[in-house]
Specification:
about 425 residues; Rossmann fold; 3 domains; seven-stranded mixed β-sheet; 14 helices; about 35% helix
Length: about 425
């Protein structure tokens, strides 16, 4: 059985009119961090490109990698590592409770619950919670912390287990996961079946309009099968038997769309959501001139980033990086940088320390290594948390350090 399969029909509308939008070539899996540098440099690479559906406009990968390869063995992402992400979940839980009038004791289910950080916010507000996640390490952490978590892919069997334990859900949520799931249509149907009549489904996922607008291309990677915007989602969800209550955008993860819908039969769209759709229709998502220049914009930005680092390296400066997110692998490839420029990367996630980036073989160290041996130049690969990271390390070094944030716009801050 092949490790990849071609996506030959739209994952939302089922149409066959797919057109390649951008091709990044063969890229290693960003989460495939290895314990040996030789294995890291030899890590398997897979095609990474985007198609656009001519019928509904939905963006999606050209090839899908077997989800067992992506998640079952070597997945180390933990949502609770970022303090700003935890604060976001706390605000989200308060918003959902108020907007949906959730009474105390409501059952909240999180699809792709990771280490339980989101469910913890709901649990703290007096709700029953249950998570589902296929990655064993974060699921184990959640269960150890008292967040009931089923370690499995979300499907009809997992939903049946939730129903057997708790009954139907009042609220189903998901964060930065519905770009990942292999069978998107089945997942949406199962979520609807898991909800009580009149129950709510609220989710956040990367907003491709913001990716295009800001040029943050590195959020395109193999785990993200879909690149969402509102119009195709609304068309699909209303046909499935959801009403669209609200659409909004927030800054988390470099720009996410939040969708709130309710299980009913009328498939209505609220006035606020209609206004959002009207605004989206006039955005870069439908600007063919902008879309045709996007690859050129990426390459120009990465050439500038590469030159900045080469100039500093050639002058004898030491270079390190902060953050080992999945997106760093594509960023390094497009910038043409690796072990020749970057001595090491540090990360707050202890599960990543001691491993090596795929393809480049750059070592990942605990954050304490940076404090002990600060570099002259520090790249923030986790650029969506750049302000948090800069605030955390400012004043901690005995020499000036130039912090380089590559995206959304290349900038340098001396601390």
């Amino acid at each position: 059985m092949s490790d990849t399969r071609e996506i030959d029909s739209c994952r939302l509308c089922g149409g066959k009119d797919l057109h390649e939008y951008i091709d990044f070539g063969a890229v290693a899996l960003g989460n495939n961090l290895q314990e040996d540098p030789v294995d890291a440099r030899a890590a398997a690479q897979y095609p990474l490109g985007l198609n656009r559906c001519g019928a509904c406009g939905h963006f999606q990968l050209t090839q899908a990698v077997d989800p067992k390869i992506l998640y079952a063995t070597n997945y180390t992402y933990l949502s609770g590592i970022s303090e700003s992400f935890v604060r976001h979940f706390q605000g989200y839980a308060a918003w959902a409770e108020e907007t949906c009038s959730l009474p105390a004791g409501s059952l909240v289910v999180d699809v792709g619950s990771n280490d339980g950080s989101c469910l913890k916010a709901f649990q703290d507000r007096g709700h029953k919670v249950c998570g589902v996640d296929p990655a064993s390490m974060p699921a184990d952490i959640a269960n150890a912390n008292g967040i009931d978590t089923i370690n499995a892919f979300f499907n009809d069997e997992a939903a049946a287990e939730i129903k057997a334990r708790y009954g139907l859900a009042d609220y189903v949520t998901s964060h930065n996961v519905l770009a990942h799931v292999d069978d998107l249509a089945a997942t949406f149907r199962t979520i609807r079946d898991l909800l009580k009549p009149g129950g709510y489904f609220g989710f956040e996922v990367g907003y491709f309009r913001e990716v295009l607008r800001t040029g943050c291309f590195d959020t395109i990677y193999h785990e993200h099968l879909d690149y969402h915007h509102a119009a195709p989602l609304v068309r699909y969800l209303t046909a499935l038997g959801f009403s669209i209550v609200d659409l909004s955008v927030n800054a988390i993860q470099g720009g996410s769309i939040r969708v709130l819908c309710r299980k009913d039969e009328d498939g209505s769209v609220s006035p606020a959501a209609k206004a959002f759709l009207d605004e989206e229709a006039g955005s870069v998502l439908n600007d063919e001139a902008f879309l045709s220049r996007w690859r050129e914009k990426i390459e120009a930005g990465m050439a500038q980033f590469h030159q900045l680092l080469r100039d500093r390296a050639d002058s004898g400066a030491s270079i390190a990086a902060y953050g080992a997110p999945t997106k760093a692998t594509l960023l390094m490839k497009m910038a043409g940088i690796g072990g020749d420029e970057i001595a090491y990367v540090v990360d707050d996630n202890k599960l990543k320390a001691g491993r090596y980036f795929p393809s480049s073989g750059v070592p990942i160290m605990p954050t304490a290594h940076l404090m002990a041996e600060p570099a002259d130049v520090l790249i923030i690969f986790a650029w969506n948390f750049a302000d948090d990271i800069i605030a955390k390390i400012k004043g901690k070094f005995d020499k000036p350090v130039d912090v380089v944030v590559p995206l959304p716009e290349l900038r340098t801050v001396r601390i």
